[in-house]
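Schema walkthrough. Field components (list of strings):
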Amino acid sequence: MSDSVLDYDEVLASFDPVLGLEVHVELNTASKMWCGCATTFGAEPNTQTCPICLGLPGSLPVVNGSAVESAIRIGLALNCSIAQTCRFARKNYFYPDMPKNYQISQYDEPIAYDGWAEVEVDGETYRIEIERAHMEEDTGKSLHVGGATGRIQGADHSLLDYNRAGVPLIEIVTKPIRGTGEKAPQVARAYVAMLRDLLRALGVSDVRMEQGSLRCDANVSLMPKGAVELGTRTETKNVNSLRSVEAAVRYEMTRQAAVLTGGDAVKQETRHWHEDTGITTPGRSKEQAEDYRYFNDPDLVPVAPSRDWVEQLRASLPEPPAERLKRVQAEWEFTDLELRDVVNAGAVDLVEQTVVAGAPAQAARKWWLGELGRRANEAGVELAEVGMTPTQVAQLQALVDAKVINDKLARQVIEGVIAGEGDPQQVVDARGLAVVSDDGALSAAVDEAIAANPEAAAKIRDGNLKVAGALIGPIMKAMKGQADAARVRELIMEKLG
Amino acid sequence: MGELTRTGAADLGAAIAAGTVSAEEVTRAHLAQIDAVDGTVHAFLHVAADDAIEQARRVDQRRAAGERLGPLAGVPLALKDVLTWTKAPTTCASKMLEGWVPPYDATVTRKLIDAGIVILGKTNLDEFAMGSSTENSAYGPTRNPWDTDRIPGGSGGGSAAALAAFEAPIAIGTDTGGSIRQPGSVTGTVGVKPTYGGVSRFGLVALASSLDQAGPCARSVLDAALLHEVIGGHDPYDSTSIDAPVPSVVEAARYGDVTGMRIGVVKELGGEGYAAGVEQRFNEAVALLTELGAEVVEVSCPHFGYALPAYYLIQPSETSSNLAKFDSMRYGLRVGDDGSHSAEEVMSLTREAGFGPEVKRRIILGTYALSSGYYDAYYGSAQKVRTLIIDDFTKAFETCDVLVSPTTPTTAFRIGERADDPVAMYKADLCTIPSSLAGNAAASFPVGLAPEDGLPVGLQVMAPPMADDRLYRVGAALERALEDQWGGPIWRALDSVSKGDDPLEPPIRANNSTREGGMA
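Field assembly_structure (string):
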């Protein structure tokens, strides 16, 4: 089954890869593209349907204005031109999960076109030209039961769920991406990651690749070094994780190189990516390709966004994620490593909100990546769902800075906040966790410790201050941790100094 | 008041509102007429007798409770079986949808119900509204009450025949290339195709989305106008619906004055291929309009000659896509689901068995016209012709208030006469297609019987978009003057359906209980 592949270095010695990436993003609008049905992921099959999204005879589509707004914002964020007027077209083909047996899409009049974006790989910036971003509707889902492959071929029967039918989709298509050389797989991954971050920042999609709300088709072709014409491409469908995007591009490069060096021609075809085995297998060939018979959908009128509206949307765009990272790194004075850890933990928003709420950046980073990260990990939840808000984290840090609590007590405060006992101050009050600042009690504990450790006390008196730690430990223990270690040290010095 | 089934909708509505007659009596009278004649005429595919009586009783209760009723409350109506109604199957006269009861009402249906109009049942049509004779119905043809050996026109032959057979005073038709107007013409009834977008298409099973338009059918101009006002208006569920008030059609129908109107006779719609009796009655009507004070001029619309071929590319193209949804997966007929066929094979077997020959012909034609490599030559060129026809109209309407032509080149032809010659059949829509392509308003009004065969002739009036009221002005003026000449409406001589020597199977009925009792 498995094709022969060429060693990656050998591929690069003879060929230049060219990429083309098509990304489908499911919008997070409350209702579907043409009707009022809900779009909640994971609902009981066929509970979010109506005569319109089921395409029942006589039903008609009406455009969801929020979806158009999201499409324009995506277009603007990708530096695209926004069409003065554009139409919807029907893409005709038969498939059981498509209720009308045509998909309403856009053909020669996309809402956004001619844009660009930049991605960075190993310190080098690559400019990706965007061909277009257009609006369309998602299909239903088929579940093929009883076959070996989970595909329709060989299945005993198939189940259809139309909850997803008619959910708004935006398809973002790049122009051919050249000149990436050995970095091609990483550039592909970085592009999809950039889109994911951008779409998340725009708030237009859940961008969950594992749930299919962001799906990537990767076109790959190879040109012999020095060639002018593009090689024959393959389109690997539904590559649904960042890791897979990189792996699938890399695999196709090595597979196509083996075909070409063996003297054969690459077949223009769609291919399926297999996450488990890390290979692609053939799908539909060019000869079997559908003639979609596109024509303008006569049930819909042109969408003509006013320039005023487009400019309003442009003005309200959030800061581009890459620029934002540069800005916060400078503001927070994070090292590259610190920033990378925060990004990888998905904690940039949380840290920023914590800083806005008054905490020092380093402290915010420490709590989110430390104690809170550990607890989120243990509970198996996203960091943002750990049970403590950025404001509460800032309040916690304020208590530490005011020496009301120390780091050790702070962990107990976090436990209390997550347990739902209220804000940090309320937890401190309710649990009686405040550091003891009553010098009387503390002084007695220090005296006790000096008496119990005469040897250590003598050494301190002789000026060997390092030994102080031997006294601090027992004192903190006696105080059940509710003492300020710095104050304890001061008292020791006063008494033995 | 006279015989209920020969009374017009306006008078029936007024009598019901005044309490002179109950809606139930009116409904039962029409159900009895259906019982008496529909075995021959076969206008109905489904008679919802029980539900109709229930609807009528509700109107009577509302009146008894002191509610002020609308002008058509309690008036029975025949609904073309291409609009959804939850109380009866919507079959589109196709085996594909046999027994399919839709879960929602079309906007038109909803408006009828809200107006208190009593829906008697669903009327026959050419399968999926493709045809000009109603012979393409999978459930057998409808016969013309003027001569039951002849066709009642199509696709809305059922609705038109129901009016001419006095089974209902008003009906809903749909017009894609002439399916309201041509049946109106050959049955001596009034048929109006409103401006495209003037009546909601939501719940109208699509033949060709850019052309389809539901409209009123009646035996008088005023009745059509009253119905037009009920069903017209903006619908947020139809993106192509025009967001503007319904033109003042009722006022125009009552006013009925053409003094000072400029009426253009379209040069290209006449001459060779037009029956002598059709030309004669048309010319007489035009002369009458002049007498009534209109200024009649000849206008040329040079591109109308290309309308028919352009239509037969655009309409099948849209149809090929619109009818793709009939694949057996979710509703309707399913063939070959015996465990030995794939889903794709089941789709294919179902479509093979479920669609009739004319539907298949148009799906194949449209699929071809949209295919890669042929699109520009066929669909693309046809769209350009469409623009040229719109231009012709725009130019003509610069100098004329309305345009006129015969509605169809001949009177009703014999059943079977054109069955094997699709192009001859398509020519029945020669005059009606230009307004369909342009999306403007058009109507057919009866202007007499052709001397050679004694069958009705219709005159078509075409008006600019959203000037539907002008149709009614011309129609009402003609109707008044002609009825003065004739001593009554055109159908005064049509007292029964008598020529039927080959009765058809009775239509499908919701039940038979209403056949007994209360029926004259």
